Amino acid sequence: MTRDELIHQIKIKRSFLCVGLDTDINQIPMHLLDHEDPVFEFNRQIIEATADLCVAYKPNIAFYESMGAAGWESLRKTWRILPKDCLSIADAKRGDIGNTSRMYATAFFDEQRSGLGFDAITVAPYMGHDSVQPFLQFQGKWTIVLALTSNTGSLDFQTFANTEGVRLFEQVIQKTNTWGNPSNLMYVVGATRGQAFESVRKHAPDHFLLVPGIGAQGGSLQEVCKYGMTADCGLLVNATRSIIYASNGTDFAERARQEASALQREMERELAAKGIV
Amino acid sequence: MTRDELIHQIKIKRSFLCVGLDTDINQIPMHLLDHEDPVFEFNRQIIEATADLCVAYKPNIAFYESMGAAGWESLRKTWRILPKDCLSIADAKRGDIGNTSRMYATAFFDEQRSGLGFDAITVAPYMGHDSVQPFLQFQGKWTIVLALTSNTGSLDFQTFANTEGVRLFEQVIQKTNTWGNPSNLMYVVGATRGQAFESVRKHAPDHFLLVPGIGAQGGSLQEVCKYGMTADCGLLVNATRSIIYASNGTDFAERARQEASALQREMERELAAKGIV
User: How far apart are CA A244 and CA A27, in angstroms?
Assistant: First the structure.
């Protein structure tokens, strides 16, 4: 999915919601456990219930990997049913030396080889340019680099500052900026970071930001929009637990839709206020 | 495998060699492609040929993941035949927010759930304490944190220095040090980093270091030992391509053994010079 297509989807759906598919077999409704592949069945119903309300889906790979080869198969089946009008993001946070990052890129981008052909992948920047560039080299795909994450541990290293007061996450944005462009590179910036969005926008005025931390983690959508929204929207705001685990009864998909719908309406107001829709 | 057991193995094998199993189906000898699972068969023969010469094996997960569920199955079969007197390291470079890192730890440590029960995993520190601690919480397992890696990109962020001249990799060691101890925590330090080992040892005098970058990447074993070896050895030096791809003919396992043996003899000399054996 190109940048123009993504912006188009945001405008027609009046939403910049990304739904996280962090599907834990121990948290899904009991009645699904009778299915041959309960994780896939859960995802299928969540996707069906939310597809018109969001512009992206983001399975976190850890949840699938924790079930070994069977989990990988649930992931493949899930990827295959993701709607083509939604950006598919492998939340994998990978990164390794060059020839190895190329293998990770193959794992998530090259359907012929791995069975998976995601549009985008999250990448950890710690190992530097040769760990990030192999992802950027895949034509028509997106690399989403961790900048300032939503968790408490983000303050351990990401805000480490040099003599000029440049913090590590700013250095990450400045450097990676020169390796990609706003059409193939995004950044992860946590919704819990409020005013740090101003600094992010100084260094990355046009890039899309993938924003976790709304909902269960306590970030504010209004604050994210105030400091992070651009004329093209420039935001994909993710919610996971507040949507997919809104209920663990037989009404889970319906309740997920209600939660997604509430967020979509809030997003529509923000888009309208900025004159984007 | 405990720290004492690891040190014991180093002394009886007179080796601190770790063999990397970065098995790429496009690089293994052609004659193996007739096997039902060529990647596993390659690993099986490499392991059989080198088990008495090394103290650890380290499959890099990217190479298995790039083949989807089938690759995950090759990894599981490989893990099952790793000798019990060798440390098994999942080179995965994972790291995510707390509940997600716990899933990754489950994926590689919890055999009952995922089919894999590695002794150790490599972890990327960028996301801070709650991304690293879930791995450390697994009893009897090792967490190996990236500090200063062997690739050229390591200089992009890992040597970023604060106002006191502390570089990011030193900050990573200082902080993670307080989350684990020399019996459950190691660091990755590239063999190509020479004198930086002195600084690493200042902050982590007793921790084992996992050292990639010997062989194909050009690091020097003598230099690593000069600056990094402790009274307990304190080093696991990895070689991958120089061993497993020493030949791509039918003699590949024999040639792998020759390369591993040459490194083992060099390591024995270093251990003897320090009075460890």
Answer: 10
SS3 content of chain A, % helix, strand, coil (to 5): 50, 20, 35
Q: Hey, what domains does chain A have and what are their CATH numbers? A: 3-273 (3.20.20.70)
Euclidean distance between CA atoms B59 and B43, whole angstroms: 9
Query: Which 3 state secondary structure label does DSSP give A59?
Result: strand
Distance of CA B241 to the CA centre of its chain: 14
What interface predicted TM-score (ipTM) does this complex get? 0.96
| B84 carries an active-site annotation | no
Name the B residues in 55-74 with CB < 8 Å from any A CB: 60, 62-63, 65-73
Question: Three-state SS for B220?
Answer: coil
- Residues in B touching A151 (Cβ below 8 Å): 97-98, 127-128, 130-131
In which element (H, E) is residue A189 found?
strand A185-189
Residue B192 φ/ψ, nearest 5 degrees: -80, 0
User: What is the band of B219 on the pLDDT scale with cuts at 50, 70, 90?
Assistant: confident
User: How would you label A60-89 residue by residue, b for 16+ Cβ within 10 Å and e otherwise?
Assistant: bbbbbbbbbbbbbbbbbbbbeebeeebbbb
pLDDT tens-place string over residues B75-125: 999 999 999 999 999 999 999 999 999 999 999 999 999 999 999 999 999
User: What Cα–Cα distance (Å) separates residue B161 from each residue in A168, A232, B192?
Assistant: 9, 35, 20
| C-beta of residue B104 within 8 angstroms of C-beta of residue B92 | yes
A216 pairs with which residues across the strands?
Answer: none
Where does residue A260 fall: left (phi above 0), alpha (psi -120 to 50 degrees), or beta otherwise? alpha
Q: Which two tokens stand for residue A82?
A: 């993701």
Cα–Cα distance between B277 and B267 in angstroms, integer? 11
Which of B13, B58, B84, B93 is catalytic? The answer is: B93
Q: Is the CB of residue A152 less than 8 Å from the CB of residue B129?
A: yes
